[in-house]
Write a structure and sequence with these properties.
alpha/beta, Arc Repressor Mutant, subunit A, 8 helices, five-stranded mixed beta sheet, 3 domains, 21% strand, Metallo-beta-lactamase, Chain A, binds zinc ion
C-alpha cells in the first residue's frame, strides 16, 4: 500500500476459525482500503471476515483502515493500552480546536496532524509539499472519517497473551518509535511482528514529539530487549522484507544512534550553543532537512540533556542546547 511521502506499509493477515485478524490495516485512504479488500479476496476472505484489526502503533499509515473495518465488519481494534496519536498529546497540543476535524475554508476536513503549526522547540513546522497536501485533502473530501483516530475496543499490556492465527502471541510493549508501540511474538514458531520497532533496512524515526521526556532512552531499552528474546526465526516488519537476525539488527540500530550522539557532542563543543535546526544540519544531509529531521535531532539532544551532558536554554523563542 502506497501514498506519496509515506512509502509502503506491510499488512499481515492472521487466519483462524473465526476469520482473519489484520495487522496494521493500511493508510487512511479509499485506494489503500480497496487494496486491502483485494488482498483479502485473493486470500479467500472478504472484509466481513475480519474479526480483529491489530494496530502496532499510533501512526496513521498503520491504522488508517481500522475504523472502517470496525464499522463494516464489527472488527475489534486491538492496541497497546497507551495507544494515542501524538497530536492528541497535551504536551504538544496547539489550542484544541485546531486538533479536531475542522471545516477549512470550504476545502473540506483536514487531517488533524496538519494542525500542528509549531514545534515544542520553537521552530515553525514546514508546510507539506503541495502534492502530498493535495492528496490528503482529496481523501478528506472523500470522507473526513478517514482521519478519525480509531478507538481501541481491546487494549493489551506488556506480557499479556492474545490468541490469533490459532496460536498464542506474547504482547511486547516496545516504546521508542512511539510511546504506544506494540510487538507480538509467537514463541511456538519464533515469529515476531515487529511493526516499526525493528526494521530491516531503515532505522525507525525517533520523534521529539513524545509524551515521554526521553523517547530515545525508551527506544534503547526496547531495542535491548530484542536481544533477550529466545528462538526468533522470522521477523515480520511493517516496512521492508522479513528478516531473521533480530538481535544483530537491533544492535546495528543502536550503533547508528550512538554515532549520532557522538556527532552532537562534537557539534556542541564547536558551536557553544546551537538551535535544533543547527544540530540537525550536522546530523542529516540537506535533502533530509525538515520536520522529521528536526524532531529526531531534538530527541537526541534531549537524551543528552537528560544524561546531564547538555544544557538547554531559551533564546529568541527557540530552545538552544550547549555542553553542560
Ligand atoms: Zn511508524
Amino acid at each position: 500500500m502506497h501514498l506519496p511521502g509515506i512509502g509502503h506499509v506491510n499488512c499481515y493477515l492472521l487466519e483462524d476459525e473465526r476469520g482473519v485478524a489484520v495487522v496494521d490495516p493500511g493508510l487512511p485512504s479509499p485506494a489503500s482500503f480497496a487494496a486491502l479488500e483485494q488482498r483479502l479476496r485473493s486470500a479467500g476472505y472478504s472484509v466481513a471476515n475480519v474479526h480483529t484489526a491489530v494496530i502496532t502503533h499510533s501512526h496513521f499509515d498503520h491504522f488508517g483502515g481500522a475504523e472502517r473495518l470496525r464499522a463494516l465488519a464489527g472488527a475489534e481494534i486491538l492496541t497497546h493500552e497507551s495507544f494515542r496519536p501524538v497530536w492528541e498529546s497535551t504536551e504538544v497540543a496547539e489550542p484544541p480546536e485546531l486538533l479536531t476535524l475542522e471545516e477549512d475554508g470550504g476545502d473540506g476536513h483536514r487531517p488533524p496532524w496538519l494542525a500542528l503549526r509549531r514545534n515544542p522547540w520553537g521552530t515553525e513546522r514546514e508546510a507539506l509539499p503541495e502534492k502530498e497536501l493535495r492528496t490528503w485533502l482529496e481523501i478528506a473530501e472523500d470522507d473526513p472519517r478517514w482521519f478519525a483516530t480509531p478507538r481501541p475496543t481491546r487494549t493489551v499490556v506488556d506480557a499479556q497473551v492474545v490468541r490469533l492465527a490459532r496460536r498464542d502471541w506474547l504482547c511486547l510493549h516496545t516504546p521508542g518509535h512511539t510511546e504506544d508501540h506494540l510487538c507480538l511474538f509467537d514463541p511456538e514458531f519464533g515469529i515476531l511482528l515487529s511493526g516499526d520497532h525493528v526494521l530491516p533496512t531503515i532505522t525507525p524515526h525517533i520523534s521529539g514529539l513524545s509524551p515521554h521526556p526521553d523517547p530515545l532512552a525508551r527506544f534503547f531499552d526496547s531495542l535491548q530487549r530484542m536481544g533477550t528474546i529466545e528462538g526468533v526465526t522470522t521477523v515480520l516488519p511493517a516496512h521492508g522484507h522479513p528478516f531473521e537476525d533480530l538481535a544483530g539488527r537491533a544492535k546495528a540500530i543502536r550503533r547508528h544512534h550512538e554515532h549520532r550522539l557522538e556527532v552532537i557532542r562534537n557539534a556542541a563543543a564547536e558551536l557553544g550553543t546551537g538551535t535544533v535546526p543547527q544540530y540537525m544540519q550536522r546530523l542529516f544531509s540537506e535533502r533530509s532537512w525538515g520536520n522529521m529531521a528536526e524532531s529526531e535531532t531534538f530527541a537526541h539532544l534531549e537524551h543528552l540533556r537528560v544524561l546531564g551532558e547538555l544544557d538547554a536554554a531559551q533564546r529568541a523563542g527557540q530552545t538552544v542546547f550547549g555542553a553542560a
